[in-house]
From TrEMBL:
Residues 24-123 form the HD domain. It comes from the Bacteria. It comes from Sporosarcina oncorhynchi. InterPro entries: HD/PDEase_dom, HD_domain. This is HD domain-containing protein. Pfam families: HD.
Amino acid sequence: METIFKQCMKQVRGTYERFDASHDFDHILRVMKNAENIAAAMPEADLPIIRLAALLHDIDDPKYFKRGNQSAEDVMRSAGADDETVSRVLDIIKSVSFNGGNEEAITSTEGAIVRDADRLDALGAIGIARTFAFGGARGRKLYDTQEISRNKMTEAEYRSKETSSVTHFYEKLLLLKELMVTTEGKRLAEQRHTFMVAFLDQLEDETGSSFQADIN
């Protein structure tokens, strides 16, 4: 499995490095590290499968996928992965995305770990940095006091409306703490969530603006 992992990493690193800073290869490395930390408390977890899924989880992201890019399945097949490995990894990847609250069901311990690992990277200081990096890359406003966050939306609505960066906190990031699945993921999310709330409080103070409802 380690040989397959290295071959896959060699294939996808250049692709990730063309993504903006919110979803670049450093993001992948952080998610893998998060996943390893969570898995350390869950000895039943299959770490090689977790690492491979973490590595490939954003390759098919519709925000970045371009015609001609290799899919996650293509990458694994070309690296020599067997049918079982491909199926397990693709199943994990399907359950990672938030999709405006319309996420796929988790079907394995490994899926729970990778989802929590990815969501941890959307929280705390790094989550704040990534949010504004993505917003900047897409030309979005920092904040919009007239914008009301949506509490229910389809995946298409979630992806199509270009809200301000601060609104994204209320539509996704501040919800993640309660959506964590693993015990360790929940523990790690607590402090990161608290930090984000403090950041938004400070931003309101500095701008003299009021953004959304209470989120403590």
